[in-house]
Amino acid sequence: MTQYLLSLPHDSAAEPTMATMDPAELEAAMAAAGAFIEELMQSGSFVFAGGLMPPSTATTVDNTGESLQTTSGPFVEAPEYLGGFWVIDVPDEETAVGWAAKASKALTSRVEVRALQEAPAEE
Protein backbone atom coordinates (compact mmCIF):
# COMPACT_ATOMS: atom_id res chain seq x y z
CA MET A 1 0.00 0.00 0.00
CA THR A 2 1.09 3.55 -0.66
CA GLN A 3 0.34 6.68 1.32
CA TYR A 4 -1.07 9.65 -0.57
CA LEU A 5 -1.51 13.29 0.39
CA LEU A 6 -4.87 14.74 -0.60
CA SER A 7 -4.48 18.50 -0.28
CA LEU A 8 -6.96 21.37 -0.41
CA PRO A 9 -5.80 24.57 -2.11
CA HIS A 10 -7.06 27.94 -0.91
CA ASP A 11 -6.95 31.28 -2.70
CA SER A 12 -4.20 33.46 -1.19
CA ALA A 13 -6.32 36.60 -1.59
CA ALA A 14 -8.51 35.34 1.25
CA GLU A 15 -7.18 33.69 4.39
CA PRO A 16 -10.22 32.10 5.99
CA THR A 17 -9.93 30.43 9.36
CA MET A 18 -12.58 28.63 11.37
CA ALA A 19 -12.79 31.69 13.61
CA THR A 20 -13.54 34.05 10.70
CA MET A 21 -15.95 31.85 8.72
CA ASP A 22 -19.69 32.37 8.72
CA PRO A 23 -20.98 29.98 11.43
CA ALA A 24 -23.44 28.26 9.06
CA GLU A 25 -20.76 27.78 6.39
CA LEU A 26 -18.33 26.47 9.01
CA GLU A 27 -20.90 24.00 10.33
CA ALA A 28 -21.62 22.73 6.81
CA ALA A 29 -17.90 22.41 5.99
CA MET A 30 -17.16 20.59 9.25
CA ALA A 31 -20.07 18.20 8.67
CA ALA A 32 -18.89 17.45 5.12
CA ALA A 33 -15.29 16.94 6.25
CA GLY A 34 -16.41 14.80 9.19
CA ALA A 35 -18.54 12.57 6.97
CA PHE A 36 -15.64 12.17 4.52
CA ILE A 37 -13.20 11.30 7.32
CA GLU A 38 -15.71 8.82 8.78
CA GLU A 39 -15.95 7.10 5.39
CA LEU A 40 -12.15 6.99 5.12
CA MET A 41 -11.93 5.50 8.63
CA GLN A 42 -14.58 2.87 7.88
CA SER A 43 -12.62 1.81 4.78
CA GLY A 44 -9.36 1.52 6.73
CA SER A 45 -7.67 4.10 4.44
CA PHE A 46 -7.45 7.01 6.92
CA VAL A 47 -4.00 7.81 8.34
CA PHE A 48 -4.41 11.40 9.58
CA ALA A 49 -5.70 14.82 8.53
CA GLY A 50 -5.34 18.44 9.43
CA GLY A 51 -6.28 21.99 8.61
CA LEU A 52 -3.56 24.61 8.42
CA MET A 53 -3.62 28.22 9.52
CA PRO A 54 -3.10 30.76 6.70
CA PRO A 55 0.40 31.49 5.34
CA SER A 56 0.48 34.91 7.02
CA THR A 57 0.82 33.07 10.35
CA ALA A 58 3.89 31.11 9.21
CA THR A 59 7.45 31.54 10.39
CA THR A 60 10.19 30.52 7.95
CA VAL A 61 13.30 29.13 9.65
CA ASP A 62 16.71 28.95 7.92
CA ASN A 63 19.59 27.52 9.93
CA THR A 64 21.73 26.55 6.92
CA GLY A 65 24.28 29.36 7.28
CA GLU A 66 26.39 30.87 10.01
CA SER A 67 23.42 32.00 12.09
CA LEU A 68 19.76 31.20 12.54
CA GLN A 69 17.44 33.34 10.43
CA THR A 70 13.70 33.53 11.06
CA THR A 71 11.25 35.42 8.89
CA SER A 72 7.59 36.11 9.54
CA GLY A 73 5.43 34.78 6.74
CA PRO A 74 5.59 31.98 4.21
CA PHE A 75 8.71 30.74 2.39
CA VAL A 76 7.14 31.48 -1.01
CA GLU A 77 4.42 33.80 -2.20
CA ALA A 78 1.84 32.09 -4.38
CA PRO A 79 -1.69 32.66 -5.67
CA GLU A 80 -2.84 29.63 -3.66
CA TYR A 81 -1.72 27.85 -0.53
CA LEU A 82 -2.23 24.54 1.25
CA GLY A 83 -5.24 24.94 3.52
CA GLY A 84 -5.81 21.39 4.69
CA PHE A 85 -4.97 17.79 3.93
CA TRP A 86 -5.60 14.10 4.48
CA VAL A 87 -3.02 11.34 4.38
CA ILE A 88 -4.51 8.09 3.20
CA ASP A 89 -3.08 4.60 2.74
CA VAL A 90 -4.46 2.90 -0.37
CA PRO A 91 -3.29 0.30 -2.92
CA ASP A 92 -2.80 2.63 -5.89
CA GLU A 93 -3.18 6.10 -7.41
CA GLU A 94 -6.53 5.22 -8.99
CA THR A 95 -7.97 4.55 -5.52
CA ALA A 96 -6.42 7.77 -4.18
CA VAL A 97 -7.97 9.75 -7.05
CA GLY A 98 -11.34 8.16 -6.23
CA TRP A 99 -11.08 9.38 -2.63
CA ALA A 100 -10.00 12.83 -3.86
CA ALA A 101 -13.10 12.95 -6.10
CA LYS A 102 -15.29 12.26 -3.06
CA ALA A 103 -13.50 14.95 -1.03
CA SER A 104 -13.80 17.43 -3.89
CA LYS A 105 -17.54 16.84 -4.18
CA ALA A 106 -18.11 16.96 -0.41
CA LEU A 107 -16.14 20.16 0.20
CA THR A 108 -16.73 21.83 -3.18
CA SER A 109 -13.00 22.33 -3.63
CA ARG A 110 -10.27 21.12 -5.91
CA VAL A 111 -8.08 18.41 -4.36
CA GLU A 112 -4.49 17.59 -5.33
CA VAL A 113 -3.29 13.97 -5.08
CA ARG A 114 0.41 13.20 -4.48
CA ALA A 115 2.08 10.00 -3.35
CA LEU A 116 4.46 10.18 -0.42
CA GLN A 117 7.97 9.03 -1.26
CA GLU A 118 9.03 5.63 -0.02
CA ALA A 119 12.55 4.50 0.79
CA PRO A 120 13.99 2.25 -1.93
CA ALA A 121 13.79 -1.46 -1.16
CA GLU A 122 17.05 -2.94 0.05
CA GLU A 123 18.37 -5.86 -1.90
Largest sheet: number of strands, sense, barrel closure: 4 strands, antiparallel
Structural class: alpha+beta
The CATH architecture comes to 2-Layer Sandwich
Number of folding domains?
Answer: 1
Which superfamily, in CATH terms, is the homologous superfamily?
Answer: Dimeric alpha+beta barrel
Low-confidence stretches: none
Number of DSSP strand runs = 6
How would you describe the oligomerization state of the chains in this entry? single chain
**CATH topology heading:** Alpha-Beta Plaits
* Fraction in helix: 25-40%
Order of helices and strands: EHEEEEHE
What does it look like?
The structure is a single chain. The protein is of the alpha+beta class. The chain has one domain (2-115): 2-Layer Sandwich (Alpha-Beta Plaits). The chain has 2 helices and 6 strands; from the N terminus they run βαββββαβ. The strands form 2 sheets. It has a 4-stranded antiparallel β-sheet, covered by helices on one side. Strands 3-4 form a two-stranded antiparallel ribbon. Strand 3 and strand 4 form a beta hairpin. It is flat, with a radius of gyration of 17 Å.
